[in-house]
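Table S2 (text version). Query chain:
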Amino acid sequence: MQTLDGKIALVTGGASGIGLATVRRLTAEGAKVAVVDIDEEGARSAAAEVGGVAIRADVSRSDEWSRIVSEVCSGLGGLDLAHLNAGVTTGVADITELTDEQYRRIVGVNQDAVVFGVREVVPELRRRGGGAIVATASLAGIVAFPLDAAYTLTKHAVVGLVRSLGRALAGDNITINAVCPGLVDTPLLTGPIRDALVDSGFPLIDASSVADAVVECMLGSATGQAVVVQAGREPTAYRFGRPPGPREPGSVGRLPPEWIADPGVSGSTEAGGS
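Corresponding structure-token output:
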């Protein structure tokens, strides 16, 4: 896409933090935006600010997604862009203290909502001749984050989904990417942890910087990427290492290219690769 002027977007978790920053940035780029959030009052406030549409929904529920897309299309006239951003943390470092309720909640919001969202928006983007999807992952989607292993699990899942779907959706003229910010100054980062980071002088990322990366992904042609966002740096597509392939004497076999999400970057296509 050369411009987002006149495009129609939905943003989940759009009432605050990265979502709200993206709502504002998309509007500044000329898009019409539907703000989707479980916080109905917050969604209405954000939508009123930008002249958009507010949709109250629990995005972790698959049965909500048909209604979400239907309301976006009926309220704004279609759908071209989706920022699947809603997210939560557990705040639990000790895995033995993680409750079933905490686990199901974080998997539902951080992981299921992205799967359900992509599944529901792709048919509408196909009808429009293409579009762009961006999912909010995290630096914890590509590195180990021992302070919240369940959060790390869900963000790794998002990155894996995006990398796999990049090639799968390319024929539909649909790009899909993940943004992977480090520590962002949002309502998710509160209490003693935020205070300690601020006191130590650790640079927190402004939510607007992540929103900028989201819009860059939507405007660009690259797909299946995990784009790292860090304070003071330009957004950068992470280069995954190549895993070792099978090694047999004299083997020259190759994997079918459609099996490889991003050949030459994320994996070897040769059976004898190292």
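Notes on Table S2: The beta strands are 8-12, 32-37, 53-56, 81-84, 131-136, 174-181, 226-229, 236-237. The chain has seven helices and eight strands.
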